[in-house]
Amino acid sequence: MLAWKWIRSRPVTGVALALLGAIAILIGSVMMAEPRLDRKWVENLSLMPKIELSRGSFSLDGVNNWSYTEDGPATKTAGRFANTFDDLRNVWFVVEPQPGGDYAAHTLVLFEFGGDRIVGLTVEARLEEGETYDAVAGVFNKFELSYIWSTARDLLTRRVTFLDKDVYVYPLRLEEKQKRDFLRALIEQSIDVSTHARFYNTITSNCTNELAKVAGLGWHYSWVLTGYSPQRLYELKLIPGETFEKAKADALMKTGIASWHALSAPEFDSALLAELRRRHPA
After folding, report:
1. Exposure string (b/e) for 13-51, b if CB count within 10 Å is 16 or more?
2. Of 89, 92, 88, 91, residue with least CA distance to 56
3. Could you read off the pLDDT of 51-94 as tens digits, one per residue?
4. Would you tell me how many other CB atoms lie within 10 Å of the CB of residue 96?
5. Residue of 145, 144, 71, 81 whose CA lies nearest to 110
6. Could you tell me if residue 48 is left (phi over 0), alpha (psi between -120 and 50 degrees) or otherwise beta?
7. Main-chain phi, psi angles of 162, to 5 degrees
8. Which residues pair with 229 in a beta bridge?
9. Which of 15, 177, 226, 235 has its CA 20 to 30 Å from the CA of residue 35?
10. DSSP summary character for residue 86
11. pLDDT at 23
């Protein structure tokens, strides 16, 4: 009773104490949370592949290969992708702008191999069934982290055909060793994340800064405000072009991707690469 009377006589202090208590509870719940691998995930984020990695080659068993129409998934399959690191040709940086402003985007990478073969990686908040993504909640250990490997058709037609989003595909200017080291490091990270659960974090472990950390790039605000990441890569001379505006215009691929959505995954890879080579001749 005495405490209650004291608080009533000092309403501003009481409100401040209540806020501090709520913050303490929130911090405590965040610190007590433990990431897990065994939740009931949404289907398209449920599969992280089994990986075999050697000095010169790798295999990914469980690569998503869904196809999409405007109404949603048409087929839901997964397969195996195996290759050597020496066969890696190019790395492509994909940007999917999000509603709300230029600052927000989802990013992912595509790896091109000889024979017009592509495999892609998307780093995402691993949602449970019934969950929706929330950037604020993502700061407070709400979601686990996932490294999902998929075909180019799966990744790109989901965004263009089903979600009706723009997609930009930028070439990355990397030396041959940098390409191979980047791929190997991401595969090693995939093994770790698929066997030792980690939390996604909007600020420190999101779709873009996970890639930037693996690539050894220094901190930059665009790894958090991810819509600005392609401009930062251009400033670092990792995306080529006379101007960034020209590079961005050349990277917009929505129309082509929409026209190829009914192709098989290998046919999609060939069509995509033919257009990319036309836009970015060696």
Report:
1. eeeeeeeeeeeeeeeeeeeeeebeeeeebeebbbbbbeb
2. 88
3. 999 999 999 999 999 999 999 999 999 999 999 999 999 999 99
4. 23
5. 81
6. beta
7. -85, -50
8. none
9. 226
10. G
11. 36
How do residues 217-234 score in pLDDT, each as one tens digit? 999 999 999 999 999 999
Helices (H), the chain: 2-9, 11-32, 152-157, 176-195, 209-215, 229-235, 244-251, 254-259, 265-279
- Kindly report each contact of residues 135-138 with a partner whose C-beta sits within 8 Å and lies 24 or more positions away, as own/partner: 135/104, 135/202, 136/202, 138/200, 138/201, 138/202, 138/206
Instruction: Quickly tell me which residue has 């290998």 as its tokens.
Output: 266
Give the single-character DSSP code of 220: -
What would the pLDDT profile of 155-186 be if each residue is shown by its tens digit?
999 999 999 999 999 999 999 999 999 999 99
In the numeric block, which tokens belong to residue 108? 């992912």
Q: What is the H or E stretch that residue 198 is in?
A: none
